[in-house]
Every structure is written in C-alpha cells, then in structure tokens.
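Can't paste images in this forum, so I'm doing it all in text. The chain is below; anyone willing to post the predicted structure tokens underneath?
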Amino acid sequence: MIFSEVILAEVVATVFYTILGLVLLGISWKAIEWLTPFSLRKEIEDDQNNAIAILIGSLFISISLLIGAVILSG
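Text version of the structure:
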C-alpha cells in the first residue's frame, strides 16, 4: 500500500509546520497593520483600493516563501 510508507512523524511535522507558517503570517499581518498609519482592512474592503490589495498580496507571497525556506533549511 502507498499509505504504509507514510510515517506518522512526517504527518505530524507537516501539520505542525503548516500551523506555524499560518501563525507567522498572521503575526506579520498584525505587524503590517500596526506599522501603517491607516487601516489596511478599510482601504481594501471599503475603498476598494486595488493597489494596496496587490501590494499586500505580493508581500504575503514573499513572506510565505521566506517562511518556507527557513522551515526547510532547519
């Protein structure tokens, strides 16, 4: 069977690192929100500011790549 080769430790590590990555992304969102002089949520949702939405999206992609690289290197 394919599943007989899956080790429980690998599954647990994958779940742990997924949760860790999501927590780090949440912390980075709070830090970005704290550092900006205006509400990003209001700008994106209410004012429909596409430029800020694209900027934050690309920032999250780059932060995700960095978190993934750090997790894989450890």
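Residues 17 and 71 are 7 Å apart (CA to CA). Helices lie at 8-35, 40-45, 50-73.
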